[in-house]
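Thread: Modeling a multi-component assembly for a lab meeting

Hi all, long-time lurker, first post. My supervisor asked me to bring a structural picture of a complex we are working on to next week's group meeting, and I have zero experience with this. I have the sequence lines for every component (582 residues in total). Could someone generate the structure of the whole assembly? Inputs are pasted exactly as I received them:
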Amino acid sequence: MTTTRTPPRAAEHDADAAGKDPGGWTFNSPLVLTLLLLLVLAVQGTVRRELSSPVMQSWMTVFVAVMLQALPFLVLGVLLSAVIAVFVPPSFFARALPSRPALAVPVAGMAGAVLPGCECASVPVAGALVRRGVTPAAALAFLLSAPAINPIVLTATAVAFPGNPEMVLARFVTSLLVACAMGWLWQRLGRADWLRPPERPSAEGLGKGAAFWSSVRHDVMHAGGFLVVGAMAAATLKAVVPASWLNAAASNPVVAVLALSVLAVLLSICSEADAFVVSSLTQFSLTARLAFLVVGPMIDLKLFAMQAGTFGRGFAVRFAPATFVLAVLGSVLVGAVLL
Amino acid sequence: MNRQAQSAVLFLIGASMLHASSTDLYLRYVKAGLRPLLIVAGVVLIATALATVWYELRQGRSKGHDHGGEPGHTHREPRISWLLVLPLFALVLVAPPALGSYSAMHAGTALQRPWGYADLPDGDPLPLSAVDYAGRAAYDEGRGLAGRRVEITGFIALDSTGTPYLVRMELSCCAADAQPVKIGLTGQLPPVLEPDNWLKVTGTYTAKRTKDPVNGGLIPFLHVTATQPIPTPKDPYESGWRG
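Re: Modeling a multi-component assembly
Sure thing. I ran the full set together rather than chain by chain. Output:
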């Protein structure tokens, strides 16, 4: 029996999707899914007509594009996190990381350099690290640094800023500094009860194969759902908000930094592509563009949704604003020195 | 959503990713280089769906009576997982077209001063990418273009005053980062230009240029001598435009 092991929290998300409603009607999700598919097939002509306006078309294109682009990286991260969860014993991390959390943070931050991919991959991996007993401060430093300092992203940055090679160095330094600062901040101020990962299927009593696939399925369904939320937000911004608003913001140096930081959060562009987008915003200062490159991989709408799903809402609403503030401050400081 | 429904959704998403990457459909949304990753991800998702069904069946056979009527057991995923059917519907049922004139006129031209200018090959007319012509025309005073007929492919977009532009969207990763490069058209134009129609335009360099009202970027012009309507190309975007 697994019910006795279920903590009270699990009830809140299980009650809606599972079990019986008060009327005694059993919620049968395969049946609902089949009916939904049939219904959408039946009305597809109407749906297509309704969605034929240019705004809706471009919204849908960006939405599908974000999903298609992010899913492979999500799957990669989910596979890696399942490997960590099932095949790597906790003792490995105990040996690999310094036992003092203050030292483990920068080591984990540097380790982010080896995860090739964008931010969608790092969330499930960091979640697996926490469950595997890695000190949260170190796992969070990894979560923040991995999407920004890996070789693929740094190469893309160098290509996007051919005239400003110092951008690559500035991005690397700032991202690593902010990631470590957030790790140390979490270690000093963070409370364990903020970090409440939603209930996962218990892997106990399962073979390794079953546990592996169960972890992959759970993470894809879960993080994937949150990814959809982020993709919808990003598509709305791209399709609806006029780019001319940006010109007004670029003239004031302080507003410029804040505007591009907020834009990075809203646009939710993959960290492998963000340098190309921001390099064309030449009306903004290099420091403002650095803020875009530092903030984006650490916190954006899609990531916020995924972090809330992986670590719990109470964590995300504290962690995200702190990350944003530190990332903006870090960019301004490093920008003042290097750029 | 219980495990059977989850495996159905995983299977459908994996299958639609394989479908999109085995045709040219995926090129409307992401760059060509992402294709192997899409295929791998699709296969992994289908494998996950099959493994879920397999373990579910085996578990059901060995201790099925344990699970009967147990409402709160931990197989369920939160309601948010249902959102995964949205991209599925969008991709399979609607398959929206590549970004066109609406997005192009919504954003400023992404043209920037090129790093350098390679010597132009022989050929008449000379096929050039939109970003290559625009870069030479706007930032190199059309050096090397004098007396050459060039041929550029793109779609038509009209600004609020009705000036026609030949546009190509430049892609670095996916359509979310697509940015337009615009070339103004003068000369012998067809009487009617429909936005979003694809054209192969032949023309010569002209010094005329204008500023994009959206971001103040330079937009060069092309003096058109001939136009030919063409179907939407296989890859509607130009990618790898930064080297």
